[in-house]
Every structure is written in C-alpha cells, then in structure tokens.
Amino acid sequence: MKAYIYNNKYVLDSADIEKPELTGLGAIVRIIGCGLCGSDIVKLKHNKATEGNVLGHEIVGVIEEINTNTGFKVGNRIVSGHHVPCYKCAYCRNQSYSMCSEFKSSNIIPGGFCEYIYLSEKHLEDSALIIPKNLSDLLASFTEPVACCLRAVRRSCIKEGDSALIIGLGSIGLLMGQVLKSFGASVTGCDLLDERVNLALGLGFDEAYMEIPNDLAESFDKVFLVSGNEKTIPLSLKYVRDGGTINVFASVESDSIGFPNNEIYYRDLTVFGSYSPASLDLRNALTLLKKGLIKVDELVTEYPLDNINQAIEDTVSNKIIKAYIKIGS
Ligand SMILES: [Zn+2]
Ligand SMILES: [Zn+2]
Questions:
Q1: Mean pLDDT of 221-244
Q2: CB 212, CB 188: distance < 8 Å
Q3: Of 221, 271, 277, the residue nearest 246 (C-alpha)
Q4: CA–centroid distance, residue 263 to ligand 1 (Å)
Q5: Which pLDDT score is estimated for 275?
Q6: What is the model's pTM?
C-alpha cells in the first residue's frame, strides 16, 4: 500500500509498504483522510520521529475487516484516538492518561498518512467512535484536535462568564476559542498575523488583536498559551489577573526564558500543561462537532496524499492554517 514515511529529513518520502494484516482481535481500517497536526511538524522539524515511521494521527476511516467483541462492524465510518491508557497505573488513577506508559507505547499501526491501518481491540474498546451520518469526513477529522482543546479547557476549570485570552491563533488557538465560547466564556485572541485576527472575529471571538491593549493587563481569568514562541511567555504573565490560570499548550524551541518562580508565587498563579486528550474528551469533541458548535471551513485546506510535502511547506510558512490530507474514499 502507499504510505509517506519519515526518513530523517524535513520532507516525507513516498513508499510502498506492506498493508497491515488482521491476525487476532482488532480491525483493519481504510483511511479516508488524516489531518496534519502541529505535532507532526514538530517531529519533522526537530528529528523527533523514528526513521521509517508513518506520521499522522487525526484519522477518519472505514472499517474494512474486523474481529472484535466491541460491536463495531465492517463499513462503520470511524475516528479514533491514537493512544490507549491502561486505566490502572498511578498516572491513570490521577487522570494523567497521557503520561501512562501504555498510552505512550500504544499507537495506530503504522500511522495516518497511508492507505490502511490496524486498530487494536483496545483502541476499539476505548477510543474509536462511529461518525454520525450528517458529519463530513473533513469535520470528523477535527475530533482529536478539538479533544485536545477540550481537555485543556476542562482542566482550566473555566466557568461561564470567565474571561479567556488565547495567545496564538493557529488552528489550535482558533479551535480553543470556539471550545471556550461553548463553555460560555468571553474570549479574546491575539496573533501577529492580521488575517488570523480577522478570522477569529469571524468565528465568534469577542475581541481579537495583533497587539493587546495595555489597559487589559492583569485582567484575564485564564490565558491559553498556544503560539509555540517562547517570547509570548512574558505576555501570558502580563495579561493574566492575580490568582488566574495559565495553560501551556505548545512546545517552544528553547526554554531559555525559564520558570518565573516569584511571579507565580507572589501573584498566586496556577500554571499547568495539557498534552493529548483522554477518550472522554474525544467523545465530547465529536458531540461539539455534531452540534455545529465548531466551524472549520475557513481553517482547513485539503491536499491529496501525494501533495503532503506541499501541505507541510504551506503550514510551516503560514500560507494555510490547517491541512487535511485526503487519502481514500
Ligand atoms: Zn493532533
Ligand atoms: Zn496507565
């Protein structure tokens, strides 16, 4: 089958690899499409993937073969998370599922940017979901990224009427804002690119700026740092109110700014990270998408699998916001 694989370069190579086989429990899924995630790009940029790997995890597909006790059937159109936690270890007992060693070592096989994957029985039990009929493939591919946002928002303990600031209006920032609106928060966004500021306003953000006005300093209950640029760390501290919360939701190239100990201590701030969703968040994300509460039309550009390197280039150069790789039907 056709796949695009990582070979220690900044581009993916086209390859003919073996189609996964069903030898025990689980399913073979024909991939319809897969979103290109910021984390795929970070892996490429910083050589964090293993040679020969197939990247991609925001999959939409159809079950083609199955041997399961779960009730899924051949022909079901599904989305699935890529990792499954054990639900037994200390991390899992404290809801830090993404830190569980079983979570980290489980995966869809071989990855999303190819024609077929193997989904284990555990994936079917825990994180595969049937896509409602009225939801398009493309919209359904946003289940995992929306679930990532939902987990961050849920863990921020947001309440109706809270004010939230999102720093960085890439695809995650624009999704996070819409998720926050669904919780009844008032949402402000900021980004250096004016077209993204306008897009945010069009998607229902209450305010959006290229430069946040100074008089809003220390006024936000929650700040979501999703820019991936360490220069925005001081901004998050400037605009969060005393006693407020900062969510760190992006990796940065270097940690040279360091940990602002005294500011966090004297201002009674809560700072937390949020990494990868739990199955509860996947389920709730699909519900939000089904209800039409998340708009993606203006965020996403579709590319055929053979143009995946163009999709990567266009994402990195900020020409587009989010790429959806169309693979089959
Ligand atoms: Zn993702
Ligand atoms: Zn565990």
A1: 94
A2: yes
A3: 271
A4: 32
A5: 86
A6: 0.95
User: Does residue 33 have a pLDDT over 90?
Assistant: yes
CA 216 to centroid of ligand 1, rounded, Å: 32
* Residue-wise pLDDT tens digits, 134-173: 999 999 999 999 999 999 999 999 999 999 999 999 999 9
User: Which ligand is nearest to the Cα of residue 86, counting in written order?
Assistant: 2
6 CA to centre of ligand 2 in angstroms: 28
98 Cα–ligand 2 center, Å: 8
Q: How far is the CA of 272 from the centre of ligand 2 (A)?
A: 20
Ligand nearest the Cα of residue 95 is: 2
Task: Please report the beta strands in 40-179, taking only residues with DSSP state E, as ranges in sequence order.
Answer: 58-67, 77-80, 116-119, 128-130, 163-167
Provide the 3-class DSSP secondary structure of residue 37: coil
Domain 149-273 has CATH 3.40.50.300: no
pLDDT tier for residue 255 given thresholds of 50, 70 and 90 = confident
The secondary structure of residue 77, as a DSSP letter, is E
Interaxial angle between packed helices 38-45 and 308-316, expressed in degrees from 0 to 180 and rounded to the nearest 10: 90
Measured CA to CA, the distance from residue 134 to residue 20 in angstroms comes to: 30
How far does Cα 68 stand from its chain's mean position? 28
- DSSP reduced 3-state for 80: strand
Check: CB of residue 137 under 8 Å from CB of residue 33: yes
Signed CA dihedral, 59, 60, 66, 71: sign only: positive
Return the H-helix or E-strand segment holding 211: none
CATH of 2-142+296-326, one of 3.30.450.150, 3.90.660.10, 3.90.180.10, 1.20.1250.20: 3.90.180.10
Which protein residues have their CB within 5 A of the ion that is ligand 1?
Answer: 37
In this structure, which ligand is nearest to the CA of 142? 1
The token pair at 279 is: 């199955």
